[in-house]
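A reminder from the course coordinator: this example appears on the midterm review sheet, so study it carefully.

Given structure:
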C-alpha cells in the first residue's frame, strides 16, 4: 500500500477457557496491528504535520510496554510484561478496563534472557471479523498462552496453550517477541529464543484458528537448533494471504543450508513456498550476523527488502525469493552497523532502523536500491510515518523524534522517559502514543 502523507500485580489470573461465540464489532480501527496494517507499512493517513511536541498525558501501568500500542474501537490497547491487557482512553489516558491474564515468568525460571519479568512482549493483533484482540502471554511454567479478548470489556473469550509439543523443544528456552498477524481466518505467532540463545529450541511459526476451534498448524525451521523467528515486526501478510518471515542464525555453519539466516515465504497452511539466503549464510551463522533481526519489507510492486546484522541489504523478488544468493540486488546499508526491528515504507521509499540511526532506502524500478539520508539524531527505533515525517525513538535516551521524510532532519522532539528495546510509536490522529518502561505516554502537537 502506498501511503500518501501530508503531513495489579496481585489480581487473580484468568483461568483457561474454551471458545464461546464472539460478538462481531463493526467499527473501524485505525491501528489494529503492528505498524498499522498486515503489510506493516507503518503509515498514518490522518496525522498532520507536527509543529511542536508536548506531553498530553502519562498513564502508569503494571509493567513495561514492549508491544506497540494499538487503536481498537476508539480505545488504545496496551500490553504489559506483567501479563496484563489494558484499554486506555486516547483523550485523557484513563484506564477503561484491565485484564490480568496470568503470572509472568520470573528471571529465576529462565536460563537466560533480558526481559524480567517476562509477560506479553509480542504486539497483539485485532481481528475485525471475530471482534477479538489476540495476545500471547508468557506465564509461570513457563508456558505460552494465546488469549482472545473482547475489546469492549476485556473479557477473555477463549485461550489455548501454544507450546510446541515436541520433546526436543524446551518451553523455557522459547520467547514470543514478534508481533502477531491475522490472515485467512488464522492468527499467526512467531517464536524464537531468549537473549543469549540458551537451551534447545527451533524457530517456529504457529497458526491458530481465530474462532478458537479446530487444529493448530505449525512450521518449524528445519535446523537442529536456533533459527529464531524473532524480528519485532512479525509475519508480513502478502495480498494473497501468504506470510513472509525472516529467520535468525542457526546451527549449520557449512552446507547443507538449513533455512536459517533467511527470508521464508509460507502459505496460509504454513507450507514453504519460497526462500532466500545470502551466499554468505554459513559465515553469517557462525558470526551471529543473521537477517532475522529485521522483518521483511513487502513493497507495493511485489519486491521484498531485507537487511539484518551484517550491514548488507538485499532486494528480492516475490514469490520466487531466489534461493541461496538469488537476490536482485545487494549493497551495504546502515553504514556497516546492524539493523533491528521493522521498517516502514511509503511507495518505493522505505525507512530502516539501524543501530546508528534511521536510514532512507529508495528502491528503483529496475531492481536496485540506493541509500539516501541517515539521521544523526540518535533515533534508532522502528519508525512509523505520518505528517510528512518519520517518527522514531532514540531507545537509549527515551527521546521521540519527528524527522523530515525528505531530509531526515529533526522537525520536533520530546523526551518521553525510559523506553524498552525496539519501542515504536503509534500514530492516532494528532497524537503519538509511546509504550515506556512504566506505562504509556501520549505526545500531542503532531
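Designed residues:
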Amino acid at each position: 500500500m502506498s501511503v500518501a502523507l501530508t503531513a495489579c500485580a496481585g489480581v487473580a489470573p484468568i483461568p483457561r477457557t474454551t471458545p464461546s461465540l464472539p460478538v462481531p464489532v463493526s467499527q473501524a480501527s485505525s491501528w489494529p496491528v503492528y505498524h498499522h496494517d498486515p503489510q506493516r507499512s507503518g503509515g498514518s493517513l490522518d496525522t498532520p504535520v507536527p509543529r511542536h511536541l508536548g506531553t498530553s498525558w502519562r498513564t502508569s501501568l503494571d509493567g513495561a510496554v514492549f508491544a506497540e500500542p494499538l487503536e481498537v474501537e476508539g480505545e488504545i490497547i496496551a500490553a504489559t510484561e506483567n501479563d496484563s491487557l489494558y484499554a486506555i482512553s486516547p483523550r485523557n489516558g484513563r484506564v477503561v478496563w484491565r485484564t490480568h491474564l496470568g503470572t509472568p515468568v520470573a528471571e529465576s525460571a529462565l536460563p537466560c534472557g533480558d526481559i524480567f519479568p517476562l509477560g506479553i512482549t509480542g504486539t497483539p493483533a485485532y481481528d475485525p471479523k471475530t471482534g477479538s484482540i489476540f495476545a500471547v502471554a508468557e506465564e509461570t511454567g513457563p508456558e505460552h498462552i494465546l488469549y482472545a479478548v473482547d475489546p469492549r470489556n476485556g473479557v477473555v473469550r477463549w485461550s489455548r496453550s501454544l507450546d510446541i509439543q515436541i520433546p526436543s523443544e524446551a518451553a523455557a528456552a522459547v520467547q514470543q517477541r514478534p508481533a502477531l498477524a491475522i490472515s485467512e481466518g488464522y492468527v499467526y505467532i512467531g517464536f524464537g529464543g531468549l537473549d543469549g540463545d540458551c537451551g534447545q529450541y527451533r524457530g517456529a511459526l504457529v497458526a491458530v484458528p481465530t474462532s478458537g476451534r479446530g487444529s493448530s498448524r505449525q512450521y518449524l525451521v528445519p535446523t537442529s537448533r536456533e533459527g529464531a523467528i524473532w524480528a519485532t515486526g512479525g509475519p508480513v501478510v502478502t495480498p494473497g494471504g501468504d506470510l513472509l518471515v525472516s529467520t535468525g542464525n542457526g546451527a549449520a555453519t557449512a552446507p547443507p543450508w538449513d533455512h536459517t539466516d533467511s527470508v521464508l515465504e509460507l502459505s496460509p497452511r504454513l507450507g514453504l513456498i519460497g526462500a532466500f539466503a545470502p551466499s554468505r549464510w554459513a559465515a553469517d551463522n557462525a558470526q551471529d550476523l543473521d537477517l532475522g533481526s529485521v522483518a521483511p519489507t513487502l513493497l507495493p510492486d511485489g519486491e521484498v527488502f531485507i537487511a539484518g546484522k551484517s550491514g548488507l541489504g538485499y532486494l528480492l523478488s516475490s514469490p520466487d525469493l531466489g534461493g541461496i544468493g538469488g537476490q536482485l540486488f545487494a549493497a551495504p546499508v546502515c553504514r556497516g552497523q546492524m539493523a533491528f526491528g521493522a521498517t516502514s515504507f511509503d511507495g518505493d521509499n522505505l525507512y530502516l532502523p539501524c543501530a546508528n540511526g534511521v536510514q532512507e532506502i529508495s528502491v528503483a524500478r529496475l531492481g536496485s536500491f540506493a541509500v539516501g539520508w541517515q539521521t544523526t539524531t540518535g533515533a534508532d527505533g522502528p519508525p512509523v510515518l505520518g505528517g510528512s515525517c518519520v517518527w522514531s525513538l532514540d531507545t537509549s535516551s527515551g527521546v521521540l523524534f519527528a524527522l523530515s521524510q525528505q531530509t531526515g532532519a529533526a522537525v520536533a522532539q520530546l523526551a518521553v522517559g525510559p523506553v524498552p528495546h525496539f519501542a515504536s510509536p503509534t500514530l492516532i490522529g494528532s497524537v503519538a502514543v509511546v509504550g515506556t518502561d512504566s506505562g504509556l505516554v501520549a505526545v500531542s502537537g503532531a
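The domain at 54-444 is CATH 2.130.10.10 (Methylamine Dehydrogenase; Chain H). The radius of gyration is 20 Å.
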